[in-house]
Amino acid sequence: MKLIKKLTAVFLVLSMLLTLGACSFQIESASPGTHTVVDHLGNEVEVPNEVNRVAVMDIYPLPSVIAMFFDSADKLVGIAPPSMLAAKSSILSELYPEILSAQTGYINGSSVNTEELMKLSPDVVFYSASQPDQGEQLRSAGFAAIAVSVNKWEYNAIETLNNWITLLEEVFSVSDKADAVKAYSDDIYDLVQSRVKDIPDSQREKVFFLFQYTENTMLTSGKQFFGQWWADAIGAKNVGEELATDNSVSVNLEQVYAWDPTLIFITNFTTAYPDDLFNNTIGSYDWSPVSAVESKNVHKMPLGIYRSYTAGADTPVTLLWLAKTAYPELFNDIDIIEETKKYYKEVFSIDLTDDQASSIFAPSAQAGDFVLD
Length: 373
Description:
The chain has 15 helices and 15 strands. 42% of the residues lie in helices and 14% in strands. A hairpin with a 5-residue loop joins strand 1 and strand 2. It has a 4-stranded parallel beta sheet, sandwiched between helices. Strands 12-9-14-15 form a 4-stranded parallel beta sheet. A 3-stranded antiparallel beta sheet has the order 10-11-13. The protein is globular, with a radius of gyration of 25 Å.
C-alpha cells in the first residue's frame, strides 16, 4: 500500500511538472517577439511577429495588394492620397469600406511627416526602394521601415507582384498566398504566349501607352517602364521602345505621328478617355491622322482594386484583357468577366458579382485625376 501511495505521489508530481512545462511552452510560443525580414534593398528589418498596424508610403498599389492578401483592410492605418483616390474610385472601397478610414495626412508626394506618422503607431511602414534616404529617415524616427521595389525585376509586372506577395508573407508570417498567385499568373502568361508567339512581325500591333495626358503634357512608356513589359507579354510592339529614360517619358504628337500606333491604351493615371482622342477635346492636339484613332482602336485600361498599368493584384487579369483587346480573334473564347471572378475566388477567396467584375473594365474618370511628382 505504501508503495502505491509513493508511486501515486510521484505520478502527481510528474504530471504537475509536465503541465507547467506545457504552459511555459505555450506562453513562450504566444510571446509577441520579433523576426527579421530582408527587404528589397537587402536591409535586415526587425518586425513584430504580430503586425496589426500598417502604413504605406508612395508605393501606391501596395495598400490594395495588402487588402487582397488579407481579404480585409483593417490593418491599413495609413496610405498615400493617390492610393486613397484609387480606392474611392474602384471596387476596393466597396469590398473593404474600412480602407476609407486610413489616414493620408502624413505624406505629401514622397515627403513624410514623421510626427504625423508617429500618431498612427504603425507596427511597420512600407516605403519605396527608390527612396533609400526616406528609409533612413523612417528608421531614425524609430519605425520598422521596409523597402519595396517596383523596378527591381525590370518592370515585369508578374515577377513584381510575386515578390511583393512573398515579402508580405515574410512580414506577416503568413504562407498561403504566394504559390497560388504565382501559379495563376504563370498559367495566364503561358496561355497568352502560346497564342501570340506565331504572329508575324508585320501583323503585330504597334502599341502606344498614353500614361498621362493634359493640355500641355503627354507621357508614355519607353523601354524602362511597365508599358514595355505589357507590350512584349502580349506579342505587340511598344512604339516608344526607342526611349531609354526610366519610368514615364514626355513625348509630343509629332513623335506619335511618326510612330503611327495601331493600338492605344490609356491608363488610369489620366482622366482622358478614348472619346477625348476621337474628338480632340483636350488641348490643341489633333489625333485624327493616327491609325489607332482612325480605326477606333483606343481603349481605357481596367481599374480593378488599383490602376492596372502598374504591377498589382489584378496583374494576371490585366494581362489577359490586354491580349484579348489587342488580338480579339485569338482570344474569342475567353470570357474576361468570368475569368476575373474565377481569379478573385480561387486565389483570394473573394466572391465578385457580375456587376463588380464588369465595373473593372468600365472605370470612371475620377481615378485618373492624378499627377505624378
